[in-house]
Write a structure and sequence with these properties.
Blueprint (H helix, E strand, L loop, with lengths): L1 H35 L8 H13 L3 H20 L5 H21 L15 H21 L7 H11 L4 H15 L1 H4 L2 H24 L2 E8 L3 H12 L3 E8 L4 E11 L3 H11 L4 E8 L13
Antiparallel strand pairs: 1-3, 1-4, 2-3
Amino acid sequence: MRIQQLTHTQVMREARDYLFITFGLFLYALGWAAFLLPYQITTGGTTGIGAIIFYSTGFPIQYSYLLINAVLMIFAVKILGPRFSIKTGYAILMLTFLLAFLQEVVNGADGTPPQVLGPGQDFMACLIGAIMCGIGLGIVFNSNGSTGGTDIIAAIVHKYRDITLGRMIMACDVVIISSCYFIFHDWRRVIFGFVTLFVIGFVLDYVVNSIRRSVQFLIFSKEYEKIADRITHETHRGVTVIDGVGWYSKNDVKVLIVVAYKRQSVEIFRLIKDVDPHAFISQSAVIGVYGEGFDRLKGK
């Protein structure tokens, strides 16, 4: 019975991951179809390569994206193993479909992508498209997904060379964005590409880390028992009591350690003030708290 329950839980967790991956890919594809492609803006990754090919030849971006990733996936399966490739393969196929579908929905009768914000609004389209792409990628990554592309290249190179993943991905993106100059002969397009890359990275980091943002309190008070009881019963957060020594006074003290969500910090401060206005409190930001009452420990 226990094994069946565990299997059911795992199936539901995987189904939820795929649902959120699909939603994130939808936002990412919509950002490209509605804002980046109509204003001829590119960025890093294999989607950026597909966009450059589309701008120069008219070959659909989704097919370039699919072909490049298909080649990379062959190497990924052989070098990195099949476990790396399951959700990545799903994401590649789903993003290919969504890019094609949303371009059909957004494009005009003649097949050209319309500039929904009006002509001359390149920078605003760059920002909106990048924000949507960043949110979409953040949702995908939070669900243990990947869109492939330069992630695969970086992972392969990292396996054989002492080069960090972030540095390798950045190097690939710089080359991809800079290459659009040879198509448009306009440094303005290159700058828009780097702005898009920066905004996507910033939003992606915010989405990935914001849901894990927590705070840690160290509380020093003679009324530690009352404070611990109220925190436990009113905020439903655990409290750890450890022994300490005040080195200046040489007196024994009790220290409360509390880890809580950031949104609960004001409530905890007010609670402590009600019990002991003279309590000494240290608060620090914590990213990534795993265990009972917080995020589950997950692995790719």
